[in-house]
Amino acid sequence: MELTEKQHIPFVIATKNEDKVLEIREILREFPFEIRTMTEAGVEDDIEENGTSFEENALIKALAVHSRIGGFVMADDSGLAIDALGGAPGIYSARFNGTGSTYPEKIQALWKLLADIPLEMRTAHFICAIAVVFPDGSHFTVQESLDGIFYDKIIGENGFGYDPVFFLPEKGLTTAQLSPAEKHKISHRGKALHAMLAQLRDAWYSFS
What we know:
The chain is of the alpha/beta class and 208 residues long. It is 29% helix and 23% strand.
């Protein structure tokens, strides 16, 4: 069943991260919702992400924005998990090394922590959880991941965040070397958004 009706209903993305919004808009470019950011919907609050998992944090953000404006709200929480560091930085990926540090600074800090770990043992995972809240307050979450290696060099100019050091052995490239179209097909966020759409289609026509 195609989502071809009720296009007037806004679908609000609960984030202020412009890079993330750009990527989500690109992946959902054929989706018939009127996609808005939380700022465009009039919500300027800083939402405290105090959950213990990606799914909890995504749901916290989505419910917080939904409590202000109702309607359909989605939020994602994503990050990098490095096996040799016990899954760190994990849910603290954006805040790692201090909230004011740049991603090159975060990468340098992680390299120091991994200094004694051989490259082949620096296995890592990009993880993305998405929560969707419906107009009646019901909700669901999905989570997907992408496996790779935390590389020892910065390579590539596409993407953002940790993309330039997330190496995909099967492609011989970092995710920052992939075109947006290539990345969206395999990325943690691309897979999570498609999983979200699959569940959303089942419930879409229940709401007016």
